[in-house]
Design brief:
Blueprint: E1 2-6, H1 9-16, E2 28-32, E3 45-47, H2 59-65, E4 74-79, H3 84-97, H4 119-122, H5 132-148, H6 155-165, H7 168-178, H8 190-203, H9 208-231, H10 247-261, H11 263-277, H12 296-307, H13 310-320, H14 348-364, H15 372-388, H16 396-399, H17 402-412
Antiparallel strand pairs: 1-4, 2-3, 2-4
Helix pairs in contact: 3-5, 5-6, 5-8, 7-9, 8-9, 8-10, 10-11, 10-12, 11-12, 12-13, 12-14, 14-15, 14-17
């Protein structure tokens, strides 16, 4: 566990205003207040909810609203650090497929024989990792590992891969693909959201090379941001699946970028999140579908965790899952079985275990130590993590994407 000290609330406010700040890292902030601040809360804890956030009730917004401006307080930032060998393992997995072209599953509309083009020609940046969105979030994985563990043995190779791939010429081809008339819904919303998450991660880096990578990615980020701005106002209903089309997952990731880089998108995402999910109560949480890698229930809760201010979220969460203290819905507390990891769809269920571990831990962290739900949720997170963490590289059907979800879970689980 790493530790950083931020001297005062005012100093943190200045630091947090920079987009390359320490926000968004699965970290907990503990505020210790001097005796002269009697009458204020003596301690406030805000969890920067794992891999993604400039979150809805996080530090940047809380300070801006005055919610946590406690005179003379200090903030201790605790960082969950992976063992170096595990960080290297994840980096090696990502490097092993981020530029591996085949096998490849294209999401490509043919308008004629001229469109029969190889993946690397269609997508000269994001042609690896079996499919476009997995390639995008593998770059996110590598960028995140590079930032947290810059002395990894794999660090130089990671830098080389970014420098080789993120060129203006190649990114212009990616951008042109989005401009095709039949690419209007390409990778909506999952790939869009991961691209914004990647952009947010690169913004946090402090070295010049990452600034170049971020600048090269920017035109594509601007195009995807505009797609969100165009799509969300007319999306009458949410999509509540356990796979790529899930809109709660997309909103959660989009906020990671929007809260630091695009106020208009952040406002829209919060408005749409309220419109879609605020009235949901007593979520039924059916048994998972056989191809889920997200829990529609828990990812909605994680989305609202970011959309709503802290107290409003606490009230909403109590209505949304009112019997958590009795471990109900029971199905959410039980890891799922994966019968065939060579089947790409069934292998999604390892992702379900890992994403549940991430969500359970993230949702438990802001709860008071005395809250009986906290221990139950953390235990559920640990069980789900244990069920799948050893299986992420058994077959390429999981290997090309599961390391990302393992990192989400590991950064969240206490």
């Amino acid at each position: 566990m790493g530790r950083f000290l931020v001297q005062t609330a005012a100093a943190w406010r200045v630091y947090a205003a920079r987009r390359k700040s320490l926000l968004g890292d699965g970290r907990r902030f503990m505020f210790r207040v001097p005796k002269r601040a009697a009458g204020w809360k003596t301690r406030a804890a805000v969890h920067m909810r794992n891999a993604y956030t400039y979150p809805g009730c996080g530090m940047k917004r809380a300070f801006a609203s005055g919610e946590l401006l406690i005179p003379g307080c200090t903030a201790i930032l605790e960082v969950r650090m992976l063992p170096p060998t595990l960080a290297s393992q994840l980096a090696r997995l990502g490097l092993g497929h981020v530029r591996r072209e085949y096998p490849n599953k294209l999401d490509h509309v043919l308008t004629g024989s001229k469109d029969l083009i190889a993946p690397h020609a269609l997508h000269p940046v994001f042609f690896g990792s079996f499919d476009w969105h997995s390639c995008v979030h593998t770059y996110w994985l590598l960028a995140r590992l590079l930032r947290h563990y810059p002395t990894l043995p794999e660090a130089d190779e990671v830098r080389t891969v970014f420098t080789t791939s993120f060129t203006e010429e190649s990114m212009s081809v990616e951008l042109a693909y989005f401009a095709r008339p039949f690419s209007r819904t390409f990778e909506r919303p999952y790939g869009w959201a991961w691209l914004l998450a990647l952009a947010a991660e690169l913004e946090r880096h402090e070295h010049e090379a990452a600034e170049r990578w971020s600048a090269t990615l920017k035109p594509l980020v601007q195009a995807v941001t505009q797609r969100f701005l165009d799509y969300l106002p007319k999306a009458t209903y949410p999509i509540r699946t356990g796979v790529h089309s899930n809109t709660a997952f997309a909103l959660a990731l989009a906020l990671e970028y929007a809260d630091g880089c695009h106020d208009g998108l952040a406002t829209l995402v919060r408005s749409v999140g309220r419109r879609w999910y605020l009235d949901d109560v007593d979520y039924p949480a059916w048994k998972p579908s056989g191809e889920d890698f997200l829990s529609p229930c828990l990812i909605e809760a994680e989305c609202m965790h970011r959309v709503l201010p802290s107290q409003e979220f606490a009230d909403w969460f109590a209505r949304f899952l009112p019997r958590l203290d009795r471990q109900e819905p029971r199905v959410l507390f039980q890891p799922v079985a994966v019968s065939d990891r060579s089947d790409g769809r069934i292998a999604h269920l390892d992702g379900l275990n890992l994403s549940r571990a991430w969500c359970w831990s993230s949702l438990a962290t802001p709860l008071a130590q005395s809250d009986g739900r906290r221990g139950l949720m953390r235990d559920a997170a640990a069980r789900h993590l244990a069920a799948s963490r050893q299986h992420i590289a058994e077959n390429y059907m999981g290997e090309h994407w599961l390391a990302t979800f393992l990192l989400l879970a590991l950064e969240a689980v206490e």
